[in-house]
Amino acid sequence: MKTSKFPADELELALERVSTPNKTVIIAVVNQAYVEQIAGAETTMLDLFLESFWLGEDTRPLLDHLLLVSVDQIAYEMCFFKRLNCYKLETEGVDFGKEQIFMSQDFINMMWRGTLLLLDILKHGYNFIFTTFNMAKERGHPR
């Protein structure tokens, strides 16, 4: 498995920007599959996820503490365009932009890379809540 070091200054700046006073952040990982609208769909997975913060009871302020970790350039650009809190996770020689087949080598590499990111966040002295979009996908969003 290939690993790469985070530019500590970029990650630290991103964590400082979104953390609560007790150094807690909400982390969600996004790639191209989550930010692009699929033919026939009314919205993107990212839009559905963000909408849940608007519709939930007292959840809007949590958006200030959400850090979207983009694993490819397209996801990063969309995150930046939407003026969200973004961090681009760089991994040399691996393209996480496409949907990964469950338990394929690329899927396993992507999972390990995410785990290493969470470890690095802890090493920086931050707490985190890690969330995923899969529930929205299972509720009827077309693949």
Automatic annotation (TrEMBL):
User: Which InterPro entries does the UniProt entry name for this protein?
Assistant: At1g28695/At4g15970-like (IPR044821), Nucl-diP-sugar_transferase (IPR005069)
Pfam annotation, one family: Nucleotid_trans
Superkingdom of the source? Eukaryota
Q: Which residues form the Nucleotide-diphospho-sugar transferase domain?
A: 62-131
Q: Which PANTHER family match?
A: EXPRESSED PROTEIN-RELATED, OS03G0731800 PROTEIN
- Name of the protein: Nucleotide-diphospho-sugar transferase domain-containing protein
